[in-house]
Amino acid sequence: MFKSSMKKIAVTLIIIVMITAGVGLANENSMTEHGTIQNFQNILMIINNYYVEDISLNQLINGAIDGMLSEVDSYSNFMSSGEYEDMQEDFEGEFGGIGIQITIRDGQLTIVSPISNTPGERAGLMAGDIIAKIDGMETEDMSQERAVDLMRGEPGTDVTLSIDREGEDELIEVEITRAIIEVPIVETEIYDNVGYLSVSQFIQETGVKTEEALLELEDEGVEAIILDLRNNPGGILDEAVKVSSLFAESGTVLSVRQREGEDQIYEVDGDFMTSDLPLIVMTNRGSASGSEIVAGFIKDQERGKLFGSQTFGKGTVQSVFPLEDGSALRLTTARYYTSGENLIDEIGIEPNYDYPFIPDEDDPEADNQLDVAVDLMAYYLENNYWPEPEDFLPELTEEELEEIAHREQEIERIEEDMENDN
Asked: What CATH class is the domain 184-318+340-392?
């Protein structure tokens, strides 16, 4: 398999915003009129002066910041200087870790996707797994950054995750040996006359690397492309736009909508080549953020077909505001919509051909989804039309259907429990 480049994983769909200290809150005057700021100052000083134990002012202020951010969403958070440096390393350097992408969903530390060919994937971690403990430490109320810190470490050292997985009655204990995480941005393969292009993440140079790989496949004479975005957790918005631009000459890729002001529209980038080869985009639950931008664009423009399973459903943009002391605030500042004005957040994107991945115990390297996707493309090339899913997709065995039904029931039960808790 061709390896175009090795890069680190990007954490979120993100925009870096520079500000200076002294920029006031937009509504500070109105808040002061209601006494809110004065109350905060008074409470802060009362606790600092009269609480039964010594407690630092910094500790109180950081707690207040965390309290404010708990009122917004799970993607917004305050980062210490060390945590901010770690985030920047995610885009630029290499680190010792286990190779998974995580988020906080419904208050639980959840795996978005394991990264291909990393310790996390080899240990069998799956998208949707809930990390209940890290080395015995409960993750309830733990920040995403704190969890990342605990899972990172010197290559060769071990970390144990306690996994709460759908369909399992007890926690699964998984011991993983950390390693240097270097993930290829793009990998390619050729199946007969079908070019396979896997994009693992959207970080710096992903658009360029994908274009180079696509040109190589076309030079090899492939007649169609399968773009694999499974377990791609997203990354930099502009890179997702560039990859989308490889498959259309023009059009709106997405719109970014903030609380106020006009939508920011991202159009196809004309500086990139355009491939007109037949296209299938593969997705799964680990396809999030930037992956959903590309998949949504291809589906809305009817440029190709989506194959696999429903995507994760992360359709928000986080802006990072660096602060003078080296810390930073990551805040959700916008939602994005596909070119067809479809909201992705908490919804995801349904594939045209919904077909599950079914692990093969006898052959861990087997990929039934890819096999069927290749067959689907071959059918299109031979007949020049896309068949109806019910007429083409292989029938599942009774055992496979029972397993799928069990998973769906478990998801419904979890959702009902969450609704009852709320």
From this structure: alpha beta
